[in-house]
Structures are given as C-alpha cells and as structure tokens.
Write a structure and sequence with these properties.
Elements: H1 2-15, H2 17-68, H3 83-95, E1 98-104, E2 110-113, H4 126-132, E3 138-142, E4 158-167, E5 170-180, H5 182-230, H6 235-244, E6 248-253, E7 258-261, H7 263-269, H8 273-276, H9 287-303, E8 307-315, E9 321-332, E10 338-347, H10 349-370, E11 375-380, E12 383-387, H11 389-395, H12 399-404, H13 416-427, E13 435-441, E14 447-459, E15 462-471, H14 473-519, H15 524-530
Antiparallel strand pairs: 1-2, 1-5, 3-4, 4-5, 6-7, 6-10, 8-9, 9-10, 11-12, 11-15, 13-14, 14-15
Helix pairs in contact: 1-2, 1-5, 2-5
Length: about 525
Amino acid sequence: MSALFNKKITKNIFRTPLLRNIFLLYLAIAILLPVYHTIFEAPLFNKMVIESAEDDAKIIALHLATMTFPDSNKLERDYFLNNDVITKFEKIVKDFQLEKIKMFSKSGEIVYSSDPGDIGKINRKDYFREIVKKGNIYSKVVKKDTKTIEDRTVKSDVVEIYIPLMKNGAFHGALEIYYDITSKKEKLNNLLLHSMYILSPMVLIALISIVLFLFNTSKISLERLHQEEALRESEEKYQTILATIEDSYFEVNQRGEITFFNEAFSKIIGYPPDELMGMKNDKYLDQKSRRKVFKMFNAVWKTGIPIKLFEYELIRKNGEKRTVQTSISLMTDENGQKVGFRGIIRDVSYHKLMENALRESEEKYRLLIENANDSIFIAQDESIKFPNPKGVEMTGYSAEELAKMPFINLIHPDDRDMVLDRHKRRLSGEKLPTTYEFRMINKAGEKLWVELNTAVINWEERPATLNLLRDITPQKKLEAQLQQTQKMEAIGTLAGGIAHEFNNALTGVVGNIELLEMRLPDNKIVTEHTE
C-alpha cells in the first residue's frame, strides 16, 4: 500500500506542470553548475594566474637587470668568474625562486649561467637579434615538459624572459631568467579543487532537498485530495484548507485546545500526533510568546477579521526554538456561532538567520568603506556616483557636489585627456594598466599627486569603474628634492673639472711667455706685448 502511494506521489510530481518544471530546472542547475565551473571558471582563473605570474617575472627581471649590470658596462666572462659575483647570482636564484638565470654579452655569448654548461654558448636566434638587441623585452610562458625558446625541456611551469641591458641607448647585453610559476598554479588548482569539493556536495544537497520538497509537496497535495473525499461532511473546512494552506495547518477551540492539525504541524512542533490532540499552547510557547499569541487571537475573536503573518517563537518538544509566522481566522459552526480558530504556520527560522547574516555583512562592508584610509569613488557617465568620506575629504567637495559635476573637473588640465581616454577605453572592455599616477586639483585649488587603482564593476546594472585613490603628494615632493640635490652635485662636479682644465691651459701660456722673454731680452716690442 505504501509503495503504491509513493508511486502515485512520484507520478503526481511529473503530472503537475509547476512541480515538474521546478524539478527540471534544479536538475539542469545541478548538472550545468559543475560543468560551467570546470569549462569556464577554472580556465579563466588559470589564465589570470599565468598573466599575473608573467607580470611578476617582468618586474623581477627588470629589477635584477639593474642589480646585475656591471659598473664597467662590459659583460665579459672574466667578470663573472669572481667568487663574490657568483655568490651574488646564486643568492638571486634562491631569493627569487628562479629555475635558471643567464647573462649574455653584446655578441650573444653566454658569459654567466646558473648552469655552468651554458657558458660560452652563443645565442643566434632571430628573436635575440631582432627583438632583444633592439632593446625590447621578450618573454614566453612555458608549460611543464615542453620546450623553451632555447629548445630546452623544462620540468616545471616557468616564464622565460629576456631583458636587454641598455646604457645611454646602446645595447650592452641581456639578462635571461626562468621564473618558476609552478607553486602559483598549484595553489590555484588546489583552490579550484577545494571549491569543487564544497560545491559538489552543496549542489547534491540542494538537488536532494528539492526532490524531497517536491515529494512532500506532491504528498501533501494527494493527502489533501484524499481528506476532501473522506471528510465530505465538513466541506467548508476543507475548502478553507485548500484555499489557505501553505505549510502547517491547525485548529483550536475556545479553550485553546488543539482539535485538528496536519502532519506538517506535527513536524514543526516536534510532538507526535497523539500528544498534540487536546494540547494547549503553554506546552510549546514561553510567557512572552503566549502574551503575543493571546493578543492576536483575542483581536480576531472580537473583530472577526483574520490576522496574517504575525511572528513569534515556539519551543519544540526537544527544547529547540523555531521562529514562525502564523495566519489565523475565526472558525464558526453551521449556525454562525464562534467555536474556535484555524490557522497556518510557516517556519521562517532559516530566513531570519539569513536576514541577520545579510544585515551583519552589509554593516561590515559599510564600516570598511567609511573608515578606509584611501579615497574610494564609483564613476559612471563621467560623474562620481559614490564617494567615501576619505574621498570627500581629499577633494573638498561634498557628495552632492561631486554627483553634479563631471569628474574630469577634478583632474589637472595636463592629465585630463589621458585619464578620460583610459576611463572610456576601460569601460569599452579594453585591457589597460589598472594602476597609474596623475595630478588632480581639489576644491581649494591645491594640486595633488594621486595613485589610482581601478577596476570595472556593475553599478545599478550598468558598467562603472571602482576607483581607489591614494595621495602621493608627499612622496612626489621628496622625489623632486632628491632630484634637485643630485642635479646640484652634478653641477659642482662639472664646475670643478672646468676650473682644473683652465688652470692647466693657463700654466702652459705663462711658461711660453717667460721662454720668449729669455730668448729676446732686447726686443722692446715683444716685451711690451708679453707684459
């Protein structure tokens, strides 16, 4: 009998369009979500890590190029035979986690390599001659067990990059590094794998929950039809149930005793049906909830007007508290006399938890933005839609003033074209550097140097940019002072050299005059001119 009833419930799910569509929708989500994660999200994150690693490698390589360029400007093998130089390069390889490092002379000869077997070889590849020797950086991402630019098979994922060593516009040699990015890719893969471990059970649980929900919904639907057929004597009761039931249904008499309930009510209260029958609410309500429930029931009794969705806490048999919403209406007999109440109870405990969590999350983000040390702006339609308090402080304008003026008015005239052009190109989808510097002018007319970090976001369902600005004016002033100091030192050195050369030349002239006077002592004309 039970198996036959379960079969009917299952058939009812697929026979009812709404239940069938809900099941098919969640089944599609359960299948497509992992597929989307694997096919689209994972490759996208992998690409981002590789691009980030390649940028890191370029920064490291440029830094090392400055560190390793000899003071003599000559990249010769003898220079790299020095133990101090070798120790320095070995430390560089270790500190920067390099798979290999090489130094090339102007001719392309390898004058140093962390692999001594490379020393003395000459790079005659086209890319070295046509790209690197012309002062351009050349790089390539090489995957594990594939060949590098130099036809060498690597055992890990690396970025191979050449940095030309230039001095006064002339090519003196090149630096090549193999930057190991295996650990970064492994971290990403572990993160993606971990997310799949979390996502898959969640999807499975959601699918099972939906199946159970559909099964229970279908079961309730069939039970409702069965009760309607079995209890025809109370047609109004079951018509009301059919019209109002959503979750748990109950009926109580004038004394507050439970006289009828459905299975969902038994589940939400946590008492078996035989204990629920005739029970009063003091068994599952505390004093505060009892006062609230009494007030609502009393209002319905006096006015006859139903009350919908008033909220309170009930206590299950095991002591667990649940937050519920209840709708109640007056129940009358065939003569119109008041005999009790009927109601619907819905468990909203989970929704309350989610509401509280969302409220706390929003409060955290609000505090973070309002107390940030950097200025934060959201720019859209060439105006500032949102500034944080630090942004208002930096510009000197209120949020209302900023919303009414083009943000380009805040930019120094010499930088406006550049900033506006990058803003428009970034919104159009073009990839540009996310961080750069420019000058801005605040309300007081002060010129400020700022560093901008920007990204494209959706704001009110349209593209906008999220901008973090940091005031770097003090740093710029220090840089200018340093440059002025260096300039004065250079002028002092130059002046000293000129004076020395002039004294040398003057000494020769004086000596020649004395020699001329010695040889021609009686020549008055010569003496007059030399004197």
